[in-house]
């Protein structure tokens, strides 16, 4: 039962994260490297509400990634292995958007949210 929930929940949570991170309809033919926030939690824009949203957005991904495991190491590894490329893809796509701001803060918050979700799954 847990395995089935994880098999359904993980792709759904990945799709939701990508839909939320992806800049729909604002693609440009060039990148906006000057708008990248390179230093996590230092480079602007750093907004506590955005950090909280990113944590909550990736919490289910980490939860479902760790659900089928019983090992703490494997659960945290699974959450990180899934969250990092999904988050990176979302941030990378924002490089081509005039209205979005890719940042290392978002990437870090996403991975931390996934690790928190994995921690919850391993405690349940």
Can you describe this structure in just a few lines?
Helix content is 66%, strand content 0%.
How is this structure best described in words?
- By secondary structure, the protein is mostly helical.
- The protein has one domain (2-123).
- The protein contains four helices and no strands.
- The protein has helices at residues 2-21, 48-66, 72-94, 104-123.
- Helix 1 (2-21) runs parallel beside helix 3 (72-94), helix 2 (48-66) crosses helix 4 and helix 3 (72-94) runs antiparallel to helix 4.
- The mean pLDDT is 92.
Describe the secondary-structure layout.
Layout: H1 2-21, H2 48-66, H3 72-94, H4 104-123
> How many beta-strand elements?
0
Oligomeric form: single chain
Percent range of helical residues:
55-70%
- Kindly provide the radius of gyration, computed on alpha-carbon positions and rounded to a whole number of angstroms: 15 Å
Mean pLDDT: 92
Which descriptor suits the 3D outline?
elongated
How would you characterize the largest beta sheet? none
Uncertain spans: none
Secondary-structure content class: mainly alpha
How large a portion of the residues is in β-strands, by DSSP E? under 5%
Number of domains: 1
Instruction: Note the run of SSEs as H and E.
Output: HHHH
Number of helices: 4
- Straight-line N-to-C gap: 15 Å
